[in-house]
Amino acid sequence: MGNSGIVHQYFKKETGGAKLFVKLNPVQFQGVELIVHPNGELETTEREFDEGIYEDLEADGFREVSGMEFHLYFSGLAK
Q: What CA–CA distance (Å, rounded) separates 4 from 17?
């Protein structure tokens, strides 16, 4: 089963000048972690999550956001 038809969820946290994003496939609990460092450097990591991801994100201070900002950084259009 591919990702077609799946609406991903996006979460964001800012800390120490860095922006941290999580793109989450809520069906397969897979996703991408994107870190935008203060100097503009991007770091991406593919992740596997479990059902506790929502509680973990909330406890770590992430908030749910639109996917637009994630995609602007991920594509290199924002710095």
A: 34
Q: Where are the domains of the chain?
A: 9-74
Strand partners, 58: none
**How many whole angstroms from its chain centre is CA 24?**
7
Question: Could you tell me the two tokens for 44?
Answer: 């991406």
Architecture label for domain 9-74: Single Sheet (2.20)
What is the rounded CA–CA span in Å between residue 66 and residue 72?
11
From residue 56, give the alpha-carbon distance in Å to each of 13, 16, 49, 63, 71: 13, 20, 10, 11, 23
Q: What is the pLDDT of residues 4-50, one digit of tens each?
A: 688 999 999 999 999 999 999 999 999 999 999 999 999 999 999 99
Stated pTM of the model: 0.89
Closest among 61, 12, 11, 70 to 42, alpha carbons compared: 70
